[in-house]
Structure formats: C-alpha cells, structure tokens
Write a structure and sequence with these properties.
248 residues; Rossmann fold; eight-stranded mixed sheet; 8 strands; 25% strand; binds S-adenosylmethionine
C-alpha cells in the first residue's frame, strides 16, 4: 500500500516517538470502550506503527495486529512480543479464518478503507458469536473531517483522499453484514502538549504535511479544531466517534 510508506510512515513513527504522551487519552478510549480481558483474542485493524499494540497485548491472551503497510508494522515486529501475531493485510483483504477473535479494535484507520462492505464481511467472519466490534474513527460532519479535508488533503505528501463515516452508513453496514444495531458515541478527545508550537510540529509530522510548515499546521488547528489551555498544557480538540456493535 503506497499511502503509509516512505516519508509518510517515517514521519508518523518519528512523531509518536517525539511526543509519547500527547495521545494518552486515546488509551482511555481503548480501555473504556473495548475493555479488553486477559482471556481474549483481539484483532487490531489498521494498527499502524503500533501505538496501541504494546499496551493492548499486555491486557489480552493474544493480539493479532494488522495493517496493509509493512513499513508501519516494522515497529510492531520490533516489540518482539510473544503473544502478538503480525499480518500485513488491510481490513478489506483480511485472510484470517472463521470465528477466531473475541473482539476487533480499530482507531483512526477505517476512513482509509474504500471497500467497507468487504471489511465488515471479513469482521463478521473472523469474530466469534457475540464478538465485539469497536471502531473509533472520523465522521464526515465533524470538525475533524474539516481539518482533514482542508489542511491534510492539501498539504500531506501523499494527499488524503478518504471516506469518512456517517451514523447511517455505519448502521447500514452492521445491518447488512450480521451485526447488531451499533451504539455510536462522540469522543471529545484532547491531545495534550507543553507548548502551542509543539502542536504545529506534531500535526506537521503525524500527517506528513511537507507541502507546508508547522506554523500553518498550528494556524489551521486553532481555526478549525480549537486549542484550549488547561493547567500547564495546551489541549488540541480531536473530535472522533466510536462505534460499538456485536456479531449476531
Ligand atoms: C492514522 S494511521 C492510525 C494508526 C494507529 N491505529 C494509530 O492510532 O496510531 C492509519 C492507518 O490505517 C492504515 N490503513 C490504510 N488502509 C487501510 C485499510 N484498507 N484497512 C485497514 N487499515 C488501513 C494505514 O496503513 C495506517 O497505518
């Protein structure tokens, strides 16, 4: 997959290493909505360079980490975790067999998948009966979608042509592929930084916005997403949604 390779993947990894605690609230989202258990087999979709994978692998019996980008997954392989199996497959191309996973977890990845019907069919095959599907992603009518379409699409080294979600489409896919009617919740995530400048640098790197500079990334974020100071930290609003459903 061309999209998350080369400089795009390199800058993504670099960014997460430079700002290791900026996304701490994302772990809270995982713990609250996925609520992983130590006897479970979990499949992670679009895991990227493994932001969640290490922590998640410590909470479950086995973690299958998938992403279409081999380069992103190199970081997960480096963890050397015995209970992690790595698969370089997109959600729409999953070759895993029937009823092997207790739960599926995905964060910030499925808007990159253009065959969401195939992906959900795969999820239904791979999950055990009553298995959970927990997907946090970008919804089309949100400030986050506006940020991606205005800033990232223009300035990212690879462009950013994606397909964001609507509640209705998520519900339709669940209906069509054998899932219960999903519950969908707003996530009022704050990504946290020591300075405003750090926000510009973080966005510049995480989205590989090499066609502009960190100053423009910060300006756009202030205008579109909003930044608030709480205590000593600058909080960047990151408004996603999470969809939770169960295989029937
Ligand atoms: C923004 S990154 C998110 C990575 C990780 N979940 C995180 O939170 O840091 C998006 C990831 O989606 C992956 N991706 C692209 N197409 C995909 C597809 N069809 N199915 C699953 N993941 C995909 C990319 O390779 C990339 O690693």
């Amino acid at each position: 997959m061309a999209e998350f390779s080369g400089i795009r993947s390199q800058m993504y990894k670099e960014c997460l290493k430079e700002f290791p605690s900026a996304r701490n609230e994302d772990f809270e989202v995982m713990n609250k909505y996925l609520a992983p258990k130590d006897n479970e087999i979990v499949l992670e979709i679009g895991a990227g360079s493994g932001f969640f994978s290490e922590k998640l692998s410590e909470k479950v019996k086995k973690l299958i980490v998938s992403d279409p980008s081999k380069e992103q997954l190199e970081e997960v392989k480096k963890l050397g975790k015995k209970n992690i199996e790595v698969r370089d497959e997109g959600a729409d191309k999953l070759t895993l067999g029937k009823e092997i996973a207790d739960a599926i977890w995905s964060f910030g990845a499925m808007h990159h998948c253009f065959d969401k019907t195939k992906a959900f069919e795969n999820f239904a095959r791979v999950l055990k009966k009553n298995g959970r599907l927990v997907m946090a992603d970008v919804w089309h009518d949100s400030k986050l979608a506006k940020h991606f379409d205005t800033q990232v699409a223009k300035f990212c080294v690879t462009g950013h042509e994606v397909a964001f979600w609507s509640d209705e489409f998520a519900e339709s896919l669940c209906f069509l592929t054998g899932f219960e009617k999903p519950k969908i919740y707003d996530l009022k995530i704050n990504w946290k930084f020591k300075s405003k400048e750090d926000i510009g640098t973080f966005l510049y790197k995480i989205h590989a916005m090499t066609k502009t500079n960190p100053e423009e990334c910060l300006r756009g974020a202030e205008e579109i997403l909003g930044i608030e100071k709480k205590g000593d930290l600058y909080c960047l609003n990151w408004p996603m949604k999470v969809m939770i459903s169960k295989k029937k």
